[in-house]
Amino acid sequence: MALDVGAYDSDALSWFADRGYNISSGLLTAVPYAGFDLAERTMVGSAPTRTLTEGDVIDLGDRAFEVLHLPGHSPGSIGLWEEKSGDYLATMARLADLPVNVVHAGHDPSMSRERFRAVISNYVTSRSSGR
């Protein structure tokens, strides 16, 4: 059950379409339950149980995630990195070797190959030194 795109204003629809999303069948491909009406949906906030900062570790017992502060999408955006199963350093080395001239990052302005490699180098150095 797709949600009718008519539920969104034209600016929102243009935003998705301009970024390459195919919205011809609607933005949602499923709804939580039959009769769900997005127009009637109210978001209810909740109080945080704690504030996360760069370097905090969320330990789930069998898994642990390090909090990475990644402003860009929003000022408080974070990423959760699981060192035990993450191959991030290998990924960074792979990306550094790509024969690119310009990199269009997901949450940053486009950058030159030199800037891209510097960002990667700084990250790898900081991870290696335990910062």
Task: Describe the protein in words.
By secondary structure, the chain is α+β, with helices and mostly antiparallel strands. The chain folds into 3 domains: 5-40, no CATH class; 47-85, no CATH class; 87-131, no CATH class. It has 3 helices and 5 strands, in the order αβββαββα. Strands 1-2-3 form a 3-stranded antiparallel β-sheet, with no helix packed on it. β4 and β5 (111-112) form a beta hairpin.
Distance between the termini: 48 Å
Which residues form runs of ≥5 with pLDDT under 50?
1-5
- Count of individual beta strands: 5
Q: Taking strands numbered 1, 2, ... along the chain, how are they ordered across the largest sheet? A: 1-2-3
Total DSSP helices = 3
Largest sheet composition: 3 strands, antiparallel
Category from helices, strands and their pairing: alpha+beta
**Helical content, roughly?**
25-40%
Instruction: Tell me the overall shape.
Output: extended
What is the domain total for the residues? 3
- The run of helices and strands is HEEEHEEH
Average residue pLDDT: 79
How large is the share of residues in beta strands? 5-15%
Rounded Rg: 20 Å
List keywords for this structure.
3 helices, alpha+beta, 131 residues, disordered N terminus, three-stranded antiparallel sheet, single chain
